[in-house]
Amino acid sequence: MTERKPMIAVLTGAGISTDSGIPDFRGPQGVWTRDPAAEKMFTYEHYMADPAVRRASWRARADNAAWNAQPNPAHLALVELERAGFPVRIITQNIDGLHQKAGSTPRKVLELHGTMFTVRCMGCGERGTMRDALDRVEAGDPDPACLSCGGILKAGTIMFGENLDSETLNQAGSIAKACRLFWAVGTSLMVQPAASLCAIAMTEGAKTTIVNAQPTPYDVVADEVVRDPIGEALPRMAAALIAAHPS
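Above: the chain sequence. Below: its structure as tokens.
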């Protein structure tokens, strides 16, 4: 009888997308490392209160590398695991949509911090596409307001100072409890509550592997820590797992 393939939960952070040309935040060449003031654009209080921060945010959105980014071997390795019959669930802190673009089943990808491709009004709650909002910016409106109520438009992402969607977070917790393997990939494991998913998985007995260039608070309790480049490490890990559990 063929051994049942273990359920894998993969928590991904900015580090998995750097090989696709999207800079991370806290790394040596990170967005905030190079420009600490840029953090204001990701902070709800500053964004809502300061029109200058919003104008800078709209300019940054238009220039975001994710618009043209392509999935890299790390994203594709997770797709291969799914195609090989493994129950894979991806919990991502990223907003770039590259897991879905690579071919991961959208319903199996939980976007903890939302997506950069939508906008929502902070007044009436109406939602729209980021592309439509950016078209207005390119037409000369530096801080486009909601067309329905005139409220402040914000990307469909979770900023610092905002709560994560409770349903999404509950789903993530359930996945962390149920998995047998937990991979934390390209994340500093410093941002809560996402980082706590690692502790949940460990408590439930999952074998935990951390793949990250920089140390994380969970390194000392993880089963394995991998410092190799993510684009090399994840394909290798996926291939080894597929070989160990043939169909």
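Residues 211 and 226 are 5 Å apart (CA to CA).
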